[in-house]
Amino acid sequence: HEVRYLADPRGGKTHRAPELAGHAAGKARDPRAAMKFGKMMRATVQSRMPSWEAYVLDYKGLKQLLNQLVDEHDAKAAQAVDEEMMMDDDPLGVFTERLDTEVEKINDFYMDRIEEGVIILHAMTQNVEALAAANVSDTAQVAALQRALVSYHFNLLMLQNYVALNFTGVVKILKKLDKKFSSDHRKVYLASIVELPFYNCAALGQVVEDTEGLFGKLEQLMNDCQARLKVPCSQPQTETHQQVDGRQGAPMAQSV
Known about the structure:
Layout: E1 3-7, E2 14-18, H1 37-48, H2 59-79, H3 91-133, H4 139-181, H5 185-192, H6 197-200, H7 202-230, E3 243-244, E4 247-248
Helix pairs in contact: 1-4, 2-3, 2-4, 3-4, 3-7, 4-5, 4-7
């Protein structure tokens, strides 16, 4: 899986995540790049994070709801005699309530993965420190830890991908909402979720940074193990033959 830094649409920061189809500039070689976002999102989830599908933004459902609300709003507007008949029509409120449910689902899933990640990283860090303190020379044991850390790190990148994909979906569906109803709801809504862990991603960034630091410690531990294996064993000392009481090779007298 190719990895690159995705520009964060929130400004300034970057997310390190596996390449998302459809984000490449210019004419993309991947045929999925020509897909609409909804299809690209489903294809990405099904191919790269199928076990997380139930926790991804229901972009298709939100789009269907939006079209339904537009049709209902237009129908009411056509039948309305005056503005009072339209006062009970609140498509933005209905849509926001549904979007809140989706964002809460995404945020809860993100927080659960972060909690699990912190626990796993702590356990692996303790294992590395214990091996370093014991001055081990078992390269197989260190290699097993390295493989486990690579797998763990890849899952973190998948979580970054998950965050970037879902955030992009939220922004895009809000953009459609604003276009359909000539509103400025996107800016208001994004400002309301700015404190959510899923939005600011600070915890994930810290876990990724700590994991990459642990890679360095494991590499040093492997180097130390290999260096110990290269040290030649000490040569056994030549046996000295003592003569005690005129008998060669007799054991030395024991102290009493």
